[in-house]
Amino acid sequence: MESNHEIKSRNEINFNFDKILSVFGDEKMDLVQPNNSIFHGTVKEHLERLKSEKKTYSDITSFNKNGEKLHWVHFVQEGGGTLGISLVGYAFVLEFLGIRFLRLAGTSAGAINTLFLAAIGEKDDPKTPELFDMLTNPSRFDMRSFIDAKNTIVRKMILSLSKGYGLIKNILLRYVFLLFAIIFPLPLLSHIGKVWFIVYGSLLGIFVLASLYMVYLFYRFNQYNFGINPGTKFQEFLEKELESFGVESQEHLDEKAKGKTQFQFNPESTYRSNVSQNLEPDATADLVQEVQVDQPVENLDEVKKKSKLTLYLNVENKLEGNQLPDEYGEIAWDYSFVATDINNETKVVLPLDGRLYFENQKNINPSNYVRASMAIPIFFEPQFFPEKPTKNHPGKNIPEQLKELWEEFKAKPKYKVRDKGILIDGGSLSNFPINLFHNPKISGKEPRMPIMGVRIMDEDPEEKIPITKKMSFTGFAGKIINTLRNNEDNSFLAINPFYKKYSIADISAYETKVNWLNFGLSEAEQKALFLVGIKAALTYLENFDWETYKKERSKI
């Protein structure tokens, strides 16, 4: 495919943290230390102090081109609408302290950040400096443009969410008031005199026109597959940015996510995780290891005694036919975006489940996967797989031979598989897919690297709602939806409380008072979100202890 945009050279991508530090470095922040004492200082002081401590975050490490030690982890990010900007602030702290990401997963806004963390530069490069450049450059990132509904009034109503639900609520209240007035008092008053008759006729005409306009909007809503915004501008933004980083297909992103990093492994660790079951066999077939010894080894103890134990990607196994014990399995890599197929009634993990929709999956632009993951119901049109139907063209359907795979991977008989997948925001079923990284095979053994996850809190968990307060209908409906969409993630964390205690950080996005559907964010609001992400990461890493993590994980 011929490129419409120039691919950035390595020199054109920003890998330097200076710009972020110039904006946020002097921000004052109090952190609670492990001994419950308060550490006062600026963001820059906290970062430099943590960096000087040279903490260990993983047993899988490498060295970058400058000789700096990097620690490799698995990283999962929750969705949260426009509050997702805070995720970039969170990831910045991790990268500044030398943490890099082997496996990545996210839903909705978390999927967007996951995509760029996988696509920018090389695998061991820091990505957040370039991401910050993108977010602060209106010519690259114009959030308002993502509201691409064709109707001007609808666009203004959506952008009014920056001030809460006031405008939409006022329009609905006026409509209801007008309806009430037409039904009851005005018909009676119209018989009193000519003036009231004219008033009644005028208001009746306004009501009829408003009703017809609402019917028209609903018709358009139906025409756009029950999504207010087509989401075209957002996908074009993704495609343009990905192309500038040399990514136009899943195959390109796979190469980026796989990388060419030379890893080191701490031989004192008792276990190295096996490759997760959700990886394709060919994704890790060539990930092998090299032990720098002259003679074949017979057991794990002998391996540990060797002064050099270095693991490589894409090198030949030099053990002359001997296999390392299971504890020394391959280093895994992958990236996952979670969506929901409402037509086939199932959670979808992409690109893994792309095999259920596409014959030539490697050629699919990964922007399609992320566009599916962030398709907030009603707000955005759903994403159709393998192809969206139009008035004049039905689009491609799921091939019959692929429908046979559904029974194997989704326990869905072929005859029940719909011709198309209709995908919406993955947060409707799993907004925080940390379960993708859980490996039951390491039960009773120490992990080789941690799983780090971050959630976005849009409500103050300590805010107490009086039991006597009457619940509104919208509040009632909202609680039902939240219960359903959080059920899978909460159930997993209830069974595995270890992750909540040792792996997960919460971003207090509610402190910014920004609405999660506010696509008209001011510069100050974006900075506030970035800053709460920084604070959450600093707090988490301040209290993180790798040895404790390994010990507690081995008890599961």
Automatic annotation (TrEMBL):
Family matches, as SUPFAM superfamilies: FabD/lysophospholipase-like (SSF52151)
Motif (DGA/G): 425-427
Domain PNPLA stretches: 75-438
Gene3D superfamilies from the UniProt entry: Cytosolic phospholipase A2 catalytic domain (3.40.1090.10)
Listed transmembrane segments: 171-189, 195-219
PROSITE patterns assigned: PNPLA
Domain of life: Bacteria
One GO term of the biological process aspect: lipid catabolic process
Position of sequence motif GXSXG: 106-110
Residues forming the catalytic site: S108, D425
Protein name: Patatin-like phospholipase family protein
Species whose genome carries this gene: Moheibacter lacus
